[in-house]
């Protein structure tokens, strides 16, 4: 009779523990999915950090370009002063060089128009740089928000994994040895 009672007890336990085993299987699958999601999030964070570094490199290159443009403007201004000095000397010079002087004035006018075009291009470039710096700031802020969000999501996932592990341990503690 005790054998029958044992068999009956075993079959009842087996039936009762079957849903627990199924649930454990689902929890393990969920844990694997969470681990996979965490790995993907970590890869995404690395890609975002790489993108941020590339943006910093682009900003540094833009700043170098701006410095080169500023040096070009300074050289153009020096050239303009030299031309103005030459014009003054030509006016003091002989009268018969007036025809040459007219040509020099036309050349000076062309230089001034070119300088105005360059200054306008520099204004546009500076304006574009301001827009780019603004866009980069916005992107950085967006990346910071995204990283914060991903960190929070990772924390939530880790908390859920810990909770699932506790459930598993709790369930295992109720199982017979």
UniProtKB/TrEMBL annotation:
Coiled-coil regions listed in the entry: 52-114
Domain of life where this protein originates: Bacteria
Keyword Coiled coil on entry: yes
Cross-referenced Gene3D superfamilies: 1.20.5.190, 6.10.250.370
This protein's UniProt keywords: Coiled coil
Name under which the protein is recorded: Uncharacterized protein
Organism this protein belongs to: Paranoxybacillus vitaminiphilus
């Amino acid at each position: 009779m005790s054998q029958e009672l044992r068999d009956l007890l075993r079959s009842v336990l087996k039936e009762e523990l079957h849903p627990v085993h199924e649930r454990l299987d689902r929890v393990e699958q969920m844990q694997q999915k969470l681990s996979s999601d965490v790995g993907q999030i970590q890869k995404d964070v690395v890609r975002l950090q790489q993108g941020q570094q590339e943006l910093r490199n682009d900003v540094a290159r833009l700043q170098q370009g701006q410095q080169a443009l500023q040096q070009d403007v300074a050289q153009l201004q020096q050239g303009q002063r030299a031309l103005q000095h030459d014009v003054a000397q030509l006016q003091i010079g002989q009268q018969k060089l007036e025809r040459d002087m007219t040509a020099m004035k036309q050349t000076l006018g062309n230089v001034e128009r070119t300088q105005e075009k360059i200054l306008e291009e520099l204004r546009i470039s500076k304006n574009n740089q301001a827009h780019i710096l603004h866009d980069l700031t916005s992107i950085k802020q967006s990346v910071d928000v995204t990283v914060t969000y991903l960190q929070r999501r990772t924390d939530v996932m880790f908390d859920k994994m810990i909770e699932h592990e506790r459930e598993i341990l709790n369930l295992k503690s109720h199982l017979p040895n």
